[in-house]
Structure formats: C-alpha cells, structure tokens
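Much of what follows relies on a compact textual record of a protein's fold. An example makes this concrete, so a full record is given next.
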Amino acid sequence: MVKICCIGAGYVGGPTMAVIALKCPSVEVVVVDISVNRIAAWNSDQLPIYEPGLDDAVKQCRGKNLLFSTDIEKHVSEADIVFVSVNTPTKTRGLGAGKASDLTYWESAARMIAEVSKSDKIVVEKSTVPVRTAEAIEKILTHNSKGINYQILSNPEFLAEGTAMQDLFNPDRVLIGGRETPEGRKAVQALKDVYAHWVPEDRILTTDLWSAELSKLAANAFLAQRISSINAISALCEATGANVSEVAYAVGKDSRVGPKFLNASVGFGGSSFQKDILNLVYISECNGLSAVANYWYQVIQMNDYQKNRFVNRVVASMFNTVSGKKIAVLGFAFKKDTGDTRETPAVDVCKGLLRDKATISIYDPQVTEDQIQRDLATNKFYWDRPVHLQPMSPTAMKQVSIAWDAYEAAKGAHGVCILTEWDEFKELDYRRIYNDMQKPAFVFDGRNVVDPEKLRAIGFIVYAIGKPLDSWLKNMPAVA
C-alpha cells in the first residue's frame, strides 16, 4: 500500500488529501499538523474549513484510509510520498520584506523530514513557492540524507475557493514538475499514478521543476491582471457613463479573451493573488528585470486603488463624512461560498471607514465574529501567521459590531456596503431594509449584486461599481 503524508492541514492540504483518499481507496493518506485544535476540528463534525462538498468527502474516508494526526514525525517517517503544504507568507522584515516569500516553515519541514526519514521519499511541493525553491530544499535534504534518497517534485495547486472540491474532482490540469533524470522521471510517474485514478492522462502535465514552480505564480498573476484590468475600466465607465457589465460582456465575447474573471468589483482577495504577484515582482527585481517587476506591481497598485476609490465614494456621497454614522457591511469573506477572509477587500474598506470614525455592523453567513475582529486588528502581511502570533485582544475594535443577519446589520444604518457576492444578498427584502434605515439611505454595491434601478425606485441612492452614476453621486464627486 502506498502511504502518503501531507504536512499542513489547511485550505490546500485538507481538501486535496480528502479527494486523494476518496479516489484512491488503496492509498493510505494521513494529514498532519502541529495545531492540536485544527486536527481536532478535522476529526469532528465541524470541519475547520467551509467548502461545498468537503464534508461528504471527509466523512466517507475518515477512519478508513484518511487520518488526521498531530503525530507528525511518525507519519512522515512511514510515508512514501510527503506533500508539504505549509504557509509561505510574505516576509514582514529583513531582505525582501513586503515582497519575498518567507520560507521559514518550508525549511523547518524539510529539516524535519531529513531528521525522521528512514527510507527513500518523494517530497512534493504543494505550497506556492518561489522559483528554484526545490533546489534549496534539495540541498537541505541531501546534506542531511544519512544515505536516504529524496526526489523533489513541484505539484502546485490551482484551486479556487468556493469550488475547490469541484476543481479537485475535475481539474483543468494537474501539473507535476521533476528533475529530468531517471530517478526524477520515476518519481514523476509515481505521482502521476496517484492522480491517474480519476484524472484523464491528457490533463496530467509534466514539466521541469522550475517551469512548474513558475507556472503557479504566472497563472495567478494572469488571473489577477484580468481583474485589475476590468476594475481600471470600471473607473472609466463611471466617469463616462458607460456600463462596465456591458463592456465586459462585449470584450468577453472575443474568443481570444473569453468571459472569465471580467467581473468588476471592489477588488480581488484570497490567499494567493497578492502574495504570488509580490513574489513575482521580487524575483524579477533580483534578476535585474525592473521593467518586468514594475509591470506586475501595477496589478497590485490597481487593486489598492479600487479599494480606496470605493471608500472615497462612500465618504464623499454621505456629505463627505461618515463620522458617527452606522454603515452596514454585507459580506466579509473575499468571495462567496467560502469562509476565507485572507486578503479580503472588506478589511481595507472597513479600516478606511473606521479611520473616518464610522460605526460598522458586519454580517457574513460563514465568517465568525472572532475571525472578523482578528482580521481588523491584524497588520498587513500578518494574516498568514499562526494564530498565536496574531493579536489576542481583537475586541478592542469598539466601533465594530457583528450582526446575525443582513436586516439587523442594516437597522438604523445610513448606508449599506455589499462586499461579498453571497447569493442571499440578491434576494433580500430591500424595501424592508430601506424602511429601517436613516434617510437618505445609501447602497454601495461593491460586487454588482443588486439591480440599481429597482433599488432607486424604492428610494435608495445607489452606487454600483462601473455603472452610470445617479445625479446625487455626480453632485458629490469622490477624489480617487
């Protein structure tokens, strides 16, 4: 029986290993993590991650060929294939701070593998890592090998949160990069054999190590670039009276462009886009490619601009101040169908409103009060650190309250900001919300969820990203 061990029970490791266990009943899969609470949650009825379809997959395999454990050294030493899916956060200090990836956790994992291994192993990079990380890991393992042979593979994940299980069951592609040696090709084949249980062979791509590592960064950069591009156009639409939805539809009909990732919004979020682009910028700078670095950094700058523009629009529309005014924030996750708040635009929007002394009431169907308070108290780039390194007293955010539903959040509010495209926000009784709000009542739709004309008919003053401005907003211009 092939034994697989995955170090890291997070958003990538947990779902990926659950699907491998489900599709490969003859493979023993163990997910290990240093966090006792996280492993306990994986072994409970309340999983630590919300992802449609994940519960069913875990419950079908858990206790059979899928185990969750804190006994890291035991399971790593017994494994044939070790996936490493640990955090690679952006460095907050030292060389490359604010751009480079911090590989501390990866290096610790590699040293531990070398220390406990008693048999040859295939070590698989599942985390998103800088190009040529495999070389560094290889050196650590080789210099501590004690006669054991290691093969390093790059197997980047291409999961979209909210559809992660669907992406795993039916992937566009599985990418495996390895050394172009007999041993390397044999290791690549071993991992291919695992995925071949359910992935068609023509979707399993094999490359050299460096191409696989760079492909993940490039893929995320291209996707984020599309979002920043349509968001740049949304600002121009507002200035000219064009409708960004119609522009995006027309552009997306070009088969060379396609319709995906052309939804204008308050900005992109998630654990990967910003981090991976900053990593790409740093690698470009280190290789003397300043023009390349500047090009990709502009994608980040446009995303920040979009969030700032949204906050400025809210403040300017409400007589140039939100001090002492209640603002309802509907949605805190960075996208619908996930509870993930990493790099969510909602953090920057809320902080911008709080700086102007607004009172904020937040409702999200999947994000806990503790997580929201923690996110608002956490400094930039620290969200990906272990919980014990994050603020322990988030309740200091006295201007923030958490509501149990959208109606409670909006009761007595001067304005409503829609920051996540949850389906339930399309079906709300906005007349009821309007009746319970201060007047004039504003809706600021950062996801183009609502029909602006229907809400205007109720009495709302509506701002929707990239849509023609109503007369009130034209008379209250925002400084971008």
User: Anything to note?
Assistant: The chain has a mean pLDDT of 92. The chain has 18 helices and 14 strands. The first strand starts at residue 3 and ends at 7.
